[in-house]
Amino acid sequence: MRRLDFFPTPYPDECLYSIFCRYFVRSGSTSNKKTIFELFGEAQSLASFVYLPRRLELVDEWAGTGSLITRECLADSNSCYGYFSIAFTERMLREMEEKIVTGGSNRSLERQMIQKCRRSHWPEYLRYCPECTKEDSESFGEAYWHRLPQLPGVEYCPKHGKAIQNSSVHLKETTMRFLPASHALCRLDEKEEPGRRLYKGKYLMIAKDSEWLLANGRRLNGCREVARKYKELFMEKDLTTAQGIRYTERIKSEFIKYHGEDFLSRLFRMAKIHYTGWSLPL
Questions:
Q1: Quick one: CA torsion of 103, 108, 109, 115, rounded to 10 degrees?
Q2: Which of 37-46, 102-111, 123-132 is predicted with the least confidence, judged by mean pLDDT?
């Protein structure tokens, strides 16, 4: 495929899908299919770019060699790689880091990433903070899709404390279509369900932790190191035997006691799993 004539400069916390949407608008194209072929040289599903740093081998074709837009910048600042990498095996993490450095193609790794990231847990709609959207329009002249509101459990913006809203864009619609936030967010909602407001403090903690993982998760070295750290903390709190065998029922009991059963039911219902099984993979 030939090099693009231009590529939009990524905005803070903007997901890759949003960058591609802005390219689509600026190119003047009216054909989603044509723009997909311009970007990827072949048919390509777009939905996973809301979350994952895929097709990084094409960055030089998108932005040009020597550009400040690099594979590492896009992976770190414009995808949810840091957040999801804590679930990666040592081999997946090593292959992904190699891909970021060398720009090599690895379709098998990309399929594994999608499987690991449990697409069934993603919110049904692209989401936004109304206050962030207003600020983006004032600062950059347009709205764009942020990474953080798309993550499961992020119900409030940690910066503004505003309730995260569903847009009109269903995630399934993003599979083969470019749906820019500047078009979709002409009218902003500020709804706040009473049940959600009741747990605002807990949701804000999740949002802040998710934000931290986006920025720092890559340095945690994958699921084995994360599991090891959890086991250390369980031992400190007498939730394992001296040999490190977990007291599963005691862990569940402490988990429910800390968070509250009603909040956990709400939180894990959104993720379509049951909260009592969260620690089993550890």
A1: 150
A2: 102-111
User: What is the CB neighbour count within 10 angstroms for residue 259?
Assistant: 15
Consecutive H or E run containing 125: strand 125-128
Contact (CB, 8 A) for 19 and 152: no
Instruction: Identify the burial level of 269 via C-beta atoms within 10 angstroms of its C-beta, where 0-12 means exposed, 13-18 middle and 19 or more buried.
Output: exposed
d(CA 105, CA 121): 27
Alpha carbons 157 and 151: distance in angstroms, whole number: 11
Q: Which two tokens stand for residue 60?
A: 């030089």
Question: For the segment 56-72, what is each residue's pLDDT rounded down to a tens digit?
Answer: 999 999 998 889 999 99
Q: What is the pLDDT of residue 81?
A: 96
Phi, psi of 60 (to 5 degrees): -65, -30
Supply 279's token pair. 């620690």
Per-residue pLDDT, averaged over 3-25, amounts to: 97
Question: Which DSSP string do the residues of 157-197 spell out, in sequence order?
Answer: -TTT-PBPEEEEEEGGGGSS----HHHHTSS------HHHH
Both tokens of residue 229?
A: 């750290």
Secondary structure class of 105 (helix, strand, coil): coil
Integer Cα distance of 143 and 263 in angstroms: 32
Cα radius of gyration (the chain): 20
Q: Does pTM top 0.70 for this prediction?
A: yes
